[in-house]
């Protein structure tokens, strides 16, 4: 068995599992050993299901022994984990909240069921913010998820635990879910490729309690090719892996720093974000594409309407009154506000967002793709958003400061180009193209975001693959 299974690309590991060079048990044991060694420092996993994983792996090896390679499922024996917002039968789903009673899920969520049918072996549940609400993966039930490139920094959110696990070589790739940037933000923070498919592309990744239909499932991977492989499991028959290595036609790409948050939360992108954008422009032009400045005009009513829709679900969460005090301040504040809003107010916000989608898509359609930084700032220190001591050894913090609005403002200034893509239902990809230390693996990763037209997921993956090594991560040792 290779000693460095975690250094294989997901595609290489898939081929070795299918061909029998590596058994499912060997792969599971290898990654479980990596998790045991590194998770105490990273906080990527909330729950590790080693015994269940090895049982699944033995069943996969038995299937391999009696089946031809062509009859095996696409992701036969591939180790994987689900963020702890996704139900996996028999495993507790915490939703990152101390206010919920933690009971094993009675059945798989559609996303988990679909990927299990594709042959994956689930190793556990990864760290998330409470109810997936924030751009950082810290909560009151488990240690914060840390960035493998700088453990004092956050791995982003809400798919932060999954991103940390992939970047640290604890998983070959992972599915995330994205309702306002929750795949692309941690991908950018951890130097990964993160694809947010368009609305309706991955039906199994949609979310309950999401009146604006913001949430979709998408891959977190170390390369565009690996992301394409996972997309083929999320959208059977999608042909993403076949398409990814094809050269895209010459594209017109609009470059912008405009954000719908600017009027409410004025921000200045950090130099590192602008360096990443400049690197992206250079790489795209070297690949033969044309770039130009795009001026996008956004309605200043957007922040209030998005926040109303984004927090509607937490207002309906079933939490007993005596346990509400266990919610984090941001969750508690937005839950109270959601419960106090009238249904007419929510309907008004949803109607505005539909018009916003129409207006924004029309402006974007002047270009083949839109380009902007993935994040306006470098990955933030653990505890930075909440003002807690979460970055120290004193976790869990008994008293989180109650400045929910300050926390939320920091998040919007950190990731000002994410949520409007969900509102518009468009596909987008985050690609790592710059390192603050000047060389791959040096300093902190910074990325670009490309936003495509409806149905352009294959094109986005092709462009990601075209950028080559600049958009591929070498696994952290």
Concise description?
The protein is α+β, with helices and mostly antiparallel strands and 477 residues long. It is built from 16 helices and 13 strands.
What does the secondary structure layout of this molecule look like, with pairings?
Layout: H1 10-19, H2 24-42, E1 45-48, H3 50-65, E2 79-83, H4 110-117, E3 121-126, E4 146-147, E5 150-154, H5 160-167, E6 174-178, H6 184-190, E7 193-196, E8 216-221, H7 224-234, H8 240-244, E9 252-255, H9 271-286, E10 290-293, H10 302-310, H11 312-316, H12 329-340, H13 343-364, E11 369-373, H14 404-414, H15 419-424, E12 428-435, E13 445-452, H16 457-466
Parallel strand pairs: 2-3, 9-10, 9-11
Antiparallel strand pairs: 1-3, 4-5, 6-8, 7-8, 7-12, 11-13, 12-13
Helix pairs in contact: 2-3, 5-6, 7-16, 10-13, 12-14
Shape: globular
Spatial sequence of strands, sheet with the most strands: 6-8-7-12-13-11-9-10
SSE string, helices as H and strands as E: HHEHEHEEEHEHEEHHEHEHHHHEHHEEH
Structural class: alpha+beta
> In total, how many beta strands?
13
What does this structure look like?
- With 477 residues, the protein is of the alpha+beta class.
- The chain is built from 16 helices and 13 strands.
- The strands form three sheets. An eight-stranded mixed beta sheet has the order 6-8-7-12-13-11-9-10, with helices on both faces. Strands 1-3-2 form a three-stranded mixed beta sheet. The chain has a two-stranded antiparallel sheet with strand order 4-5.
- Strand 4 (146-147) and strand 5 (150-154) form a beta hairpin.
- Helix 2 runs antiparallel to helix 3 (50-65), helix 5 (160-167) packs parallel to helix 6 (184-190) and helix 7 packs antiparallel against helix 16 (457-466).
- The longest helix has 22 residues, at 343-364.
- The chain is globular.
- 56% of the residues are buried.
- The mean pLDDT is 95.
């Amino acid at each position: 068995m290779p000693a460095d299974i975690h250094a294989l690309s997901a595609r290489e590991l898939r081929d070795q599992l299918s061909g029998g060079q590596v058994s499912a048990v060997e792969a599971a044991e290898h990654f479980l050993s990596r998790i045991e060694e590194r998770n105490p420092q990273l906080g990527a996993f909330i729950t590790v299901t080693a015994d269940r994983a090895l049982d699944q792996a033995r069943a996969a090896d038995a299937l391999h022994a009696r089946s031809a390679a062509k009859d095996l499922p696409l992701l036969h024996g591939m180790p994987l984990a689900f963020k702890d917002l996704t139900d996996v039968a028999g495993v507790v789903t915490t939703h990152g909240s101390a206010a919920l009673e933690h009971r094993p899920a009675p059945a798989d969520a559609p996303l988990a069921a679909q990927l299990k049918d594709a042959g994956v072996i689930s190793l556990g549940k990864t760290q998330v913010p409470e109810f997936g609400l924030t751009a950082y993966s810290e909560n009151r039930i488990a240690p914060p998820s840390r960035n493998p490139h700088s453990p004092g920094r956050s791995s982003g959110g809400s798919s932060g635990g999954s991103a940390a696990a992939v970047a640290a070589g604890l998983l070959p790739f992972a599915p995330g879910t994205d309702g306002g940037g929750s795949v692309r933000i941690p991908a950018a923070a951890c130097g990964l490729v993160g694809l947010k498919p368009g609305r309706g592309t991955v039906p199994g990744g949609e979310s309950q309690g999401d009146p604006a239909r913001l949430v979709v499932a998408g891959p977190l991977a170390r390369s565009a090719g690996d992301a394409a492989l996972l997309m083929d499991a999320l959208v059977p028959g999608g042909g993403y892996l076949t398409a990814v290595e094809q050269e895209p036609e010459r594209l017109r790409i609009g470059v912008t720093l405009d954000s719908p948050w600017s009027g409410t939360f004025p921000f200045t992108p950090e130099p590192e974000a602008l360096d990443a954008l400049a690197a992206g422009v250079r790489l795209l032009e070297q690949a033969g594409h044309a770039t130009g400045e795009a001026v996008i005009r956004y309605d200043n009513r957007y922040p209030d309407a998005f926040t109303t829709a984004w927090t509607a679900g937490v207002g309906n969460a079933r939490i007993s009154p005596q346990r509400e005090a266990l919610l984090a301040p941001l969750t508690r504040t937005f839950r109270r506000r959601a419960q106090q809003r009238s249904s007419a107010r929510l309907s008004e916000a949803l109607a505005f967002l539909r018009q916003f989608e129409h207006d924004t898509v029309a402006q974007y359609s002047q270009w083949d793709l839109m380009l902007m930084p993935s994040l306006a700032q470098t990955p933030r220190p653990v505890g930075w958003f909440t003002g807690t001591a979460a970055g120290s050894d004193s976790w869990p913090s008994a008293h989180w400061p109650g400045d929910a609005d300050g926390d939320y403002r920091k998040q919007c200034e950190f990731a000002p180009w994410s949520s409007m893509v969900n509102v518009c239902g468009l596909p987008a990809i985050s690609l790592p193209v710059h390192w603050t230390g000047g060389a791959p693996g040096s300093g902190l990763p910074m990325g670009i975001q490309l936003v495509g037209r409806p149905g352009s997921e294959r094109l986005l993956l092709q462009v990601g693959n075209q950028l080559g090594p600049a958009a591929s991560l070498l696994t952290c040792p």
